[in-house]
Each structure stands twice: as C-alpha cells, then as structure tokens.
Amino acid sequence: MNRWFAPGLFLLICLALAFRVPQLDRRPMHNDEGLNAMKFRSLWVTNDYKYDSFEFHGPTLPYATLPAAWFSPTREFNRLTESTFRVVTVAFGVGLILLLLLFANGLGKPEILCAAAFIAISPAMVFYSRYYIHEMLLIFFTALTMGAGWRYVQSKSVGWALLTGAGFALMFATKETFVLAAGCLALAAVCTLTWGRWIEGQRLNIKSHLNFKHLTAAITVALLVWLTLFTSLFTNVSGPMDSLKTFLPWLDRAGGDSPHIYPWDFYLRRLIYFHYPNGPIWTEALIVALAAIGFICALTRRWLGETNVTLVRVLAFYTAGLTLIYTLISYKTPWCLLNFFHGMILLAGVGTVALLRMCRLRWLKCTMAVALVAAAAQLGWQAWRASFPECASQYNPYVYAQTSPNALELVNKIEALARASPQGHDTVIKVTASPESYGPLPWYLRRFNHVGWWHEIPKDPFAPIMLVASEYQAKFDERPDKTHLMAGYFQLRPHVFFELYVEINLWRAYVKTLPPEND
Q1: C-alpha–C-alpha distance, residues 310 and 299, integer Å
Q2: What is the percentage of the chain residues whose pLDDT exceeds 90?
Q3: Residue 263: how many CA atoms within 13 Å on its side-chain side?
Q4: Which tens digits make up the pLDDT trace of 146-177?
Q5: Is residue 251 classed as helix, strand or coil in its secondary structure?
Q6: Where are the alpha helices (DSSP H) in 255-404?
Q7: How far apart are CA 125 and CA 89, in angstroms?
C-alpha cells in the first residue's frame, strides 16, 4: 500500500479536478453567490471591506478570493467572471483531499484513499465545490483544525498547536455555524473518553495531553488571526465586536424566524433517496451506509486493523452529534449538510476497508470490491449529472432557489439595449422589487453605472430601462402617454418574475440593430 498510496492520491486529486473545474460558468449565479461577489467588490475596488454581522458571513471568503482575482486575465472587477469566483471554492473542495494526509497515521492509508475517492466523486461535494459560498471553506478549516489537533495529540509539537489555533480562528472567521462543529468536536472527545472508561475500563491521564504553554500559544495565534480578519487588517475597530453580536440574528433564524424552515428529514432525504416525479433518482446512500459501518466498528473495535480507535471514535461521535443537531435545527439550506457529511465520508473510508476485512474468503472479497467500485462509479455519474446537464434543474437535490437560465436572457436583452443606446452602460436603469427578490441582479448589472433600487414604485418611476417585480402589477405599458412598452416577462428564480419596460425610442433603436428576418 505504501508504494501505491502517493500515486493513488494524486490520481484521485486529478479526478476531483476533472469533476470540478470544467464549465464553471455553466450555471447562473445563485443569489448568495452574487451577494458574495458584490461583497468582494468593496474589498477589490475600494479596499473598504467591513464585516456585516446581520446578513453576511465571515471575511475568509472575500480574502481567499484575492489570489483568484490577482491571477485573472483582468484586474477590472466588472470583467471578472463566474469562474474567477467559483475556482476559489474548487480549490478548497480539492484541498479537503490533501488534508486527509493529516489523519494518515490514525486512519490508515487504505482508509484515506477510500475517503479521498468519496470526496472526489460525491455529488454533494462536487456540486458545492463549484458554488461560491462559505460552506466549503468552513468544512476545509474544520478539517484543518481537527487534523492539526490530532497531530498535536500525537507529537506534542508546538507547531501543530499553533496550526490548530489558527484553524479554529479561521473557522470562526468563515461562518457563525462553526460553533456547532466546535461544540460537537469537544463533546466527541468527552464521549470518547467516557466510552473508553465506562465500557472498556480504560484510564487516561488527561494531564499528560495538556501543555499550558502550548495551549497559550494556540490561543494567542487564534486571537491574532481573529482580530486580523474581523478588523479588516486592523482598519475596522468594530469588527471583532460585530463577530460576537452576529449570533443574535442567526439564533432567531435557527429558531424559526426565516423562510428556510423545513422538517427534520430535509437533509437525509437529499442524501439517501431524492426523487421528483418524471425526474431521475438521486442517492448517496452508499456513503451513508458505509459511514454507519465505520461508526459501529469504532464503538466495537472490530475490523479496524491498525486504525487508531481513539481517532475513529472521536470522528464517530462528532459526526453523529453534528448530524443530530443539523437535523433538529429548523433552519435548513441544503449546503449545510456538508458539515456533517464530511464526517460521514471519513467514517465511510473506515467502513469500506472494514467491510472488505469482514469478507474472509478471497472470492467474496473480490465480489465486494467490484460491487463497491460499481456503486462508486454510480456516484461519479450522479456528480457529473448534478454539475453539468442538471446543474440548475429542480430535479437536482442540491439546487435550491436557483437563478433561472431565463434570467440570463433578461441580462442579455438589457446588454443589447445598452449597445443600442448612445449612453451605453451609462444608461439609467430603475429596479423595483423587494430586497429578498432581486438577487443576483446586482451582480449581473455590475457593468452599468446608473442603477437605482426601490422597494416600492417611486414617484418618478420612469427610466430608459425599468425592471419591476411582477407582484407590483406596474402596467407601465398601458398608460395613456405610451412612453414605454413591456419588452418581456422573465423568471429570475422560482416564484420570482420581473417585467422589463423599455422607453419606446430606445426600443426602436434596439430593433434597428437586429438582423433582418428571412422571408
């Protein structure tokens, strides 16, 4: 296995890249992606990024986007593309495979390769690695913290202690829900110690694992990273306090003050069996089932080989606790499942090798191996389907409030109108819609210099180009003066529609630019 480990890991990284890198601009920007991109704009254009404790998540995503923008073909924000932003989460998604090396001396190399394969081909992991939101960064920094902490327990090296502290601060600076992972990790350590003592009669000298100098160093590094990021590199004094105040609005949302309220089985239905009438069947039950086997092996110590039982038990209790918490919390969005699903994948790596160890007979072991490879291939096929042909389909379990492809037709129409207008991108556009409904239009209209946003129809509603949410029933084209006509009715995302109104003279200029129709 030692001879094949490095080439195998390299091939799995290549496989992960093959699923994640192509056609990153295929799917329209989701509302959250557009908001995150526009938040980065303040950092890139004016260097005036400030953490927003009410609506936006932590600062690691915009700061992690800087290298992608530096190496892009253009430095002009308005020319940055969807691929520029999504490659950031691709890097962190693939980086999860490299972080498995931190666990290699505890989980075992065969288990690491199996877990790496699942990360590479899991439909959820692939889909959200191509999604410019904070979740993949949170998973990455959580894995970094866990891996560095494990290395510290093994080596007692101050370097690993410092990396653990930095990883914890980066979790904090990524998303408020880091507290759930941190709390479950601490609870998992306690459960592991309790299980070993009460069930197996083990005695562990906790003092032997504590070095207060190293603990102080780790806390110091964590505070320094926390302060650096939340103060926007020491330019925003209120940032650290805002990072603490943010838990109040998010607690309200978790408790039910949100439109994203769903029943307890919301995540499990997406992972185990998801099917709309006339749509394909989606399932990652293979990973869930193998994770269950890994969990049982952790508690019973059976079929683990040279795997460190303490590490596997911590992962088992951590994953079970986090799954339970996310199941019970009423607030649910599908990408949140990544938090406990990553733990399932690690356990599935253990469960896969354990399952093969259970098969004593050679023919049975070979049959099981072939069955697992076939099931893994089916996962890869789903990952391809989810990220390419059905990347914006309602039949996809990981698509949620997705921007409609019809929105791109709207944007293309507005760009064509601007080309016909003498003002070009200085053409005035007025958008009337509730703040919850117009995203990601700010991203798609970023090239226009005069865009106004209203939450209700203004006293002077007219402009060369007007976008009005259908709920307002504007009917500007039915007025007696006939200054505007309605140039289309477009779906922005599910249940959100916009009417496009264009000044008649501008519309005439636009029509002249169209190619003549063939008789």
Answers
A1: 10
A2: 77
A3: 4
A4: 999 999 999 999 999 999 999 999 999 999 99
A5: helix
A6: 266-272, 285-300, 309-328, 338-358, 362-387
A7: 11
